[in-house]
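cron nightly-structures :: item 1 of 1
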Amino acid sequence: MKRRLIPRGLRTRLVVGFLLVSALSALTTAALTYHQARTAILARAQDSAVHDLRDQVDSLAPDLPARPTDADLRDLTLQLDRAGGARNWRTAAAYRSGPLVATTTPAPAVPAELRSSAASARNAVVQRFHRDGDPQLAVALPVASAGRSSAPSGLVVYASFSLAPEQRDASSLVAAARAGALPVVLASVVPALLAARRVLRPVRQLRSATESMAAGALDTRIDVTGDDELADLGRTFNTMAATLQADATTLRRMEAGARRFAADVSHEMRTPLAAMTAVTGVLDEDAASGRLDPETSEALTLVADETRKLARMVEDLMEISRFDAGAAVLDLDEIDVGELVRKTLALRHWQDRVEVAVPDGLRARLDPRRIDVVLANLLGNALRHGGTSAPVRLRARAGADALVLTVADGGAGIPDDVLPHVFDRFTKGDAARTRSEGSGLGLAIAAENARLHGGTLTAANAPDRGAVFTLTLPWDPV
């Protein structure tokens, strides 16, 4: 299994999510702070520049003639450049549609859009732009006519200067915000861990309680505090656990009652059935002797057969009841496996119908009565349903630590829908037949006897034809 480099547990996801929210909040705050601070810095620089330029123009413009010449404009820009001070602006002036007149060379950068806007403006117009990667601010200030402040004189004064200092101030805010975001994120680790621990504590309790219930402790409950969603989940779990415990108790009581009922009925029927079997055996002999008329003989034979079937079913029910009650025990003995197989076949007169391959001298410590029951059920089932195209085969072999016996027939095999349930109680291979010689308990009893020995009993279909039952038992060479 490939190991994950990054843990993906709920605790990790909660902590990571908390840190991401903290980092996002810090970065969002830094971005908003930077935007607001940059806007405020640039607005303050712009207003200050417009105010200073207006003050200088207002003090110098009255000395200009009504129609200033280029020389007049050059003197004006020279005085304005000297008054720039720390702002270090460079100025230019234009009268009506005339060219820009400046003292410095080259002339200050004035965007064409700014000149176009200033031609019809009455108040100052500003524009931010970049020149060779340097952020700059250009100001266009229309000069009003003397005596009529609202009427433009046609003279426009331009000033441009670098916004690099303001840009550095804004950048320093970004650096400060970035530097402050990391401590915020690191500091949020502690509350993230505490929050994750508080959230996951009831989840861990719920997981432990669920594991306990899965192990069979249906009386498991969890302590619920609070009124949040996790508390509601805990209360729901307790309600579910109580319901399951009550249902399980009821089912166990009903199951125990059913087992007792089956055992009691089987036990009560055993004595009268024994008497009935003895009587029908005598009557069956009379019918076989020919002393009775054919109809009476046929009726007595039918009654005798059905009585024997009922007696076998009662014996099977009693055997199943002993398994359910845990009263079935092993009576182990060292036996010869080949001899046990021959006795099983001889007792039921199956010697000529089963091919046997058991190694000579194969001995094992088993319960002979229970292994006889297993083999009788498997062989009887194979003889009934295996068909007549091929004989039933019984094979035995010993491995390193297991004794394996297989019973195979040449019939049509077990239907695919029946195969997973072949060892269930009251399961019959041919569901189309309403009656059969079996009780539907034979294979279930065989499987229980195999488990009682610590072994297994499995069923499968052979690749070519027929069903194969495999009995595997623990084995130590003796």
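cron nightly-structures :: done
The chain has three domains: 10-186, 217-328, 333-474.
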